[in-house]
C-alpha cells in the first residue's frame, strides 16, 4: 500500500475569500496527496483538532485578512499544548516579507506569498513533509 502525504488545509479567522486555497488544495490532491479542506471561518482550535483527528502530517493555512501573526501563533501554541509539534505548518496569503522571519521563528515551516505557483507549493510539500502510513 502506497503511503500518501495527508494535509489539513484551512481558512482561519474571518477571511471569506477561498478561491486560492481551493486551487492549492486541488493541486495538492492532484499531486497524489490526501487533502482535508476544513472550509471557511475555522478557529485555530478547530484546525488543530481536525489535524490531530485526521492524523495529518501537515496543516496548510491560507490567510488574507492580515491576522497572520495572531493566527499562526495560536495554531503553533495549540500544537505545542497537544504535543503535536510533529505536524508541519505552512501557509500563504497576503503576508508581508518583513513578517516571514518571525513566522519562521515561531516554527512555521513555509510561507507562500502572492505569485507562488501551485507547482512550487507541491514541490515544497513533497520535499518537506513525510507521507502518512
What is the strand and helix layout of this fold?
Layout: E1 6-10, H1 19-30, E2 34-37, H2 44-53, E3 58-63, H3 68-81, E4 88-93, H4 100-106, E5 110-112, H5 118-128
Helix pairs in contact: 1-5, 2-3
Q: What does it look like?
A:
The chain is an alpha/beta fold and 133 residues long. The protein has one domain: Cobalamin-binding domain (Rossmann fold, 3-Layer(aba) Sandwich), CATH 3.40.50. The chain has 5 helices and 5 strands. The chain has helices spanning 19-30, 44-53, 68-81, 100-106, 118-128; strands at residues 6-10, 34-37, 58-63, 88-93, 110-112. The chain has a 5-stranded parallel beta sheet, with helices on both faces. α1 (19-30) crosses α5 (118-128). It starts with 5 loop residues before the first strand and ends in a 5-residue tail after the last helix. The mean pLDDT is 95.
Q: Write down the oligomeric state.
A: single chain
What's the helix count?
5
Mean pLDDT reading: 95
Q: Could you give the count of β-strands?
A: 5
Question: Which strands sit side by side, in order, in the main sheet?
Answer: 2-1-3-4-5
GO molecular function: cobalamin binding; isomerase activity; metal ion binding
Pfam family, one: B12-binding
Cofactor: adenosylcob(III)alamin
Keywords: Cobalamin, Cobalt, Isomerase, Metal-binding
